[in-house]
Amino acid sequence: MLFLKLIFKNVFRAKLRSSLTLLGLIIAVFAFGLLQTAVDASSAGAKAASSSRMVTRNAISLVFPMPAYYRERIKAVPGVKGVTTAQWFQGIYIEPKNFFPQFGVDHETYFELYPEFLIPADQLLAFKKDRQGIAVGRKLADEFGWKLGDTIPLAGTIFPGNWQFHLRAIFDGKEESTITRQAFFHWEYINEWLKVKAPRRADQIGVFVVEVDDPARTADIAKAIDAEFKSSLAETLTETEKSFQLGFIAQMESIVLLIRVVSFVVIFIIMAVVANTMAMTARERLAEYATLKALGFSPGFVGMLVLGESMMLALLGGGMGILLTFPLAQGFAKSPAGNFFASFKVSPETVWMQVACAVIVGLAAALVPGIRSARIRIVDGLRHIG
Amino acid sequence: MKIPFSYIFRNLWTRKLTTLLTAGGMALVVFVFAAVLMLNAGLRETMVGTGRIDNAVFIRKGAETEIQSGVTRDQAALIESLPQIARGEDGRPLASKESLVLISLTKKGQDKGSNIVARGLSPIGFALRPQVKIAQGRFFRPGSSEIIVGKSIAEEFSDVAVGQTLHFAKRDWVIVGVFDGGKSAFDSEVWGDADQLMQAFRRVVYSSVIARLNNVNEFEATAKSVDDDIRIALQSKQEQLFYEDQSRALSNFITWLGIFLSVIFSLGAMIGAAITMYSSVAMRTAEIGTLRALGFRRASVLAAFLGESLLLGLVGGIGGLAVASFLQAFTISTMNFQSFSQLAFGFVLTPGIVIETILFSLFMGFVGGFLPAVKASRMKIVDSLRAA
User: Fold this and answer.
1) Mutate which of A23, A60, A204 to disrupt the B interface (most B C-beta within 10 Å)?
2) CA separation (Å) from A40 to A321, A344, A348?
3) Cβ atoms within 10 A of the Cβ of B55, count?
4) ipTM value of the model?
5) Considering only CA atoms, which of A345, A292, A354 is closest in space to residue A323?
6) Helix boundaries (H) for A43-88
7) What is the distance in angstroms between the Cα of A341 and the nearest Cα belonging to chain B?
8) How far is B16 from chain A (nearest CA, A)?
9) Which one, A186, A330, B223, B358, has the greatest CB density within 10 A?
10) Measured between alpha carbons, how far is B328 from B343 in angstroms, rounded to an integer?
11) What tens digit of pLDDT does each residue of B326-345 get?
């Protein structure tokens, strides 16, 4: 008890220095937390993926479509429970900076394969009935203040023209990881236009989403599907939804890696600051530590005193930093920059990593000063003037 | 009277560990600050170097990138006949009708594919881009299934080298050369014969037309003729601007990341500097009293301590910049969200970045050292002498 009390008193002896160090620690720990959360957020799509769904795309690359009749042949592959279609649209809502993912889907079946999108039955019906109907996620609807019945104009980039959609359904996410910042509309609406204006581009599908009856057999079923279209004009590549999403992250790997590295650099910076504080503190108190040793306290006790002070600083700062991470992450998620991420939530792993960082900083900072103080010769220490 | 510089320097020298830790913290901040600026400069250099101001790009109205665009043969012919388009020595228009597709190649050390631009073009397209040189092997023979690959592709992707083949669109494409795009975005592309690529991919329309203008100043006139002719129904852009626009989102992302990191990190470093300087002042109370008793003015004491802190910042700044300069050896290849394909770019250290970085480190030193220096200069002679 006495030991703890001594440490506590020591920590706040130099008030200004300790508070500045604490402030630095708080900033570093929450910055680390935010950066880690940003890294997590980049893989939100993979987290939301279901293990019983697979994605079939053109083997050349995603920008190449496949003939619509592939659907029936995929459906006939043993083990396939359901098939639906999606096409990336990339329309512009008023301005390019309002970007959000939009897909032209098979309106009859799409939501059957995605039970994590919760749509009221009447809205789903209204969506299915209206050729120009569009269903948007809650986050997106809130962001632009859309209400049921609103008309949403999208300027096509891949499919030229100004397209008008009627908002018929707003869906919520079943899980927290479900991405509700996206929109789905009838692919048939665009396809009908293509049939007239650009017949070569009509009846083509971007990706097929395949539901399997047994998630353990995805690898075999994927092989069977791809074999079906081997050496045809549009060869396919089928992979699990998770692997499909991870493919995107892999393409941005270097940026994600950069953020990850930088998040550790901030911890190094604060390590230097705390180590400096401890070095100065120990130097000032050498005479004191020598006195303690003269009174009969062991070198270990003196070393522990330095370590304890360093740990207390690190844990106090780290704790406050962690507490601050949550409101700041929430604030960031609501800001315009936060819209870049589908979801921005602090995960328990991030918090544990923050704790680990604080502990490591506390230990590392105490290392040199602690050993030096423990080893000081009593005579030298007593002679020492700060 | 001024306090000599050697006094300032020796103060830092005496407390080596503390000086090292503080300057080290600052150096890390400066390193990150400089790295982000260098990355942005590298991206800019790449995109600016890709386009020329006397070239114009024609793509479909509403499309933002060549991949999204489609240009029919009729439209392309109308563009070629525009009076502003330059003619070659043989009298043919210097316009390249190009076809772009994205193919998937695998990076070394990864098992997932990355999107790569495969550009179909003719020898004219090569002539329109003088920055592109063949580095190894030769140019593809027009009308054959031969391709050449950019330098970054050859370096970063597995199984891509002269003599090897890539298989896509039911054909084997022989790699006959590697080209150096002069640090442009072309380094991240695969080039082949336009007609062959279009046949293989069953395409009937081009993606874009790139044309050399007679004169840089004629772009406005060109844009007007294109807009006025309803048969063309395309949009025109200056090539350089076209590529700059294509990296805007990525550039903004890097800039914002840089601002966020610099602000947060520099707070940490300034706190570190303040702690060091405060303790430096506290430990030297008697010394300050002596200096004042010797006749040095308050302003001189203030200047000495501020100088110490600025020197600390400068050491950190130079250290960080020195480490950051090694980054120039690296290139980063990442997905450009706008073009949906890989783009390789490097870290580039410009004189502007050196100046900005040094100013930034001096600023950190100044802010961190200002309050402690004021505290030192305000001490009363008698009190401080007594403190010893």
Assistant:
1) A60
2) 19, 8, 11
3) 23
4) 0.79
5) A354
6) 44-47, 70-75
7) 12
8) 11
9) A186
10) 17
11) 999 988 888 888 888 999 99
Percent pLDDT > 70 in chain A is 98
Largest CA distance in chain B: 94
Q: A359 by DSSP, 3-state: which?
A: helix
The partner residue sitting opposite B268, judged by closest CB among A24, A246, A254, is A24
Judge whether A266 is closer than 8 Å to chain B, CB to CB. Answer: yes
For residue B208, list its beta bridge partners: B98
From the list A380, A266, A280, A265, the residue with the least C-alpha distance to A321 is: A266
Long-range contacts from A19-23, C-beta under 8 angstroms, 24+ separation? A20/B271, A20/B274, A20/B275, A20/B278, A21/A273, A21/A274, A21/A277, A21/A313, A21/A317, A21/B271, A21/B275, A22/A313, A22/A316, A22/A317, A22/A320, A23/A317, A23/B271
Residue B148 tokens read as: 């050449």
Q: Which residue in this structure is represented by tokens 């506590």?
A: A8
* pLDDT level of residue A323 (50, 70, 90 thresholds): very high
CB contacts, 8 Å: A61 with chain B: 101-104, 113, 115
What distance in Å separates the CA atoms of residue A30 and residue A34, rounded to the nearest whole number?
6
Asked if B270 contacts A27 with a C-beta cutoff of 8 angstroms, the reply is no
A242 neighbors A51 (Cβ within 8 angstroms) = yes
**Taking the C-alpha atoms of A364, A369, A374 and A376 in order, what is their torsion angle to the nearest 10 degrees?**
160
SS3 (DSSP) at A183: strand
Q: Please give the backbone phi and psi of residue B330, each rounded to the nearest 5 degrees, phi first.
A: -100, 150
Name the 3-class secondary structure at B151. helix
- For residues A11 and A312, is the Cβ–Cβ distance under 8 A? yes
Is B110 within 8 Å of A250 when comparing Cβ atoms?
Answer: yes
- Residue B383 in tokens: 């009190």
Query: What are the contacts of A147-150 at 24+ separation with CB within 8 A?
Result: A148/A123
User: How many C-beta atoms lie closer than 10 Å to residue A197's C-beta?
Assistant: 12
Among residues B374, B372, B376, B371, which one has the least CA distance to residue B285? B376
Q: Give one DSSP letter per residue of A77-123, joined into a string.
A: STTEEEEEEEEE---BSSSGGG---EEEE-TTTHHHH-TTEE--HHH
| Shortest distance, CA A20 to any CA of chain B (angstroms) | 6
Query: N- to C-terminal Cα distance for chain A?
Result: 28
Q: Within a 13 Å sphere around the CA of B296, how many CA atoms are in the beta-carbon half? A: 22
Q: pTM (2 decimals)?
A: 0.84
Report chain B's terminal Cα–Cα distance, integer Å. 25
Do B238 and B56 contact (CB within 8 A), yes or no? yes
Q: Map out the domains of chain A as residue ranges.
A: 2-44+252-383, 60-234
Q: What residues of B are in contact with residue A284 (Cβ under 8 Å)?
A: 279, 283
Q: Which residue has the tokens 């002896």?
A: A13
* Predicted pLDDT at B256: 86
More confident residue, A277 or A341: A277
Rounded Cα distance between B351 and B37, Å, is: 12
Alpha helices in chain B (DSSP H): 5-14, 16-50, 73-80, 123-127, 151-156, 194-200, 219-228, 239-246, 248-283, 285-293, 298-325, 351-378, 381-387
Going by C-alpha positions, the residue among B94, B79, B56, B80 that lies closest to residue B219 is B56
Question: Residue A38 in 3-state DSSP?
Answer: helix
Contact B115, B342 (CB under 8 A): yes
